[in-house]
Design a protein that fits this description.
Blueprint lengths: L1 E5 L4 H12 L3 E6 L11 H4 L4 E5 L5 H11 L3 E4 L13
Parallel strand pairs: 1-2, 1-4, 2-3
């Protein structure tokens, strides 16, 4: 199975990416690397032949088309979101 995970460098996404690779799945991590992303947390799988990283924003149609054409995933897990929960309680 080949997964494309959006937001794979975020808090939840990176846990999903690491677990999927550890279980033998091919994973394409598509992330815009905004303030919540942390590629360092993906170090355990970064060199795996099962892992690929694409820096792109899901709002960029051309980047998405290119990622789908190149990697041809079977499943998409959409975890990209900027909820700004850490700033939602201000004031």
């Amino acid at each position: 199975m080949k997964l494309l995970v959006t937001g794979g460098a975020g808090f939840i996404g990176l846990a999903v990416v690491r677990l999927a690779v550890q279980r033998g799945h091919q994973v394409v991590n598509l992330d815009a690397l905004t303030y919540a992303a942390n590629l360092a947390n993906l170090a355990p799988v970064a060199d795996s032949p099962l892992y690929a990283f694409v820096e792109a924003d899901i709002r960029n149609r051309e980047a998405l088309v290119a990622a789908f054409a190149r990697h041809q995933p079977n499943i998409v897990l959409h975890l990209a979101a900027e909820s700004h929960v850490d700033r939602s309680i201000d004031g």
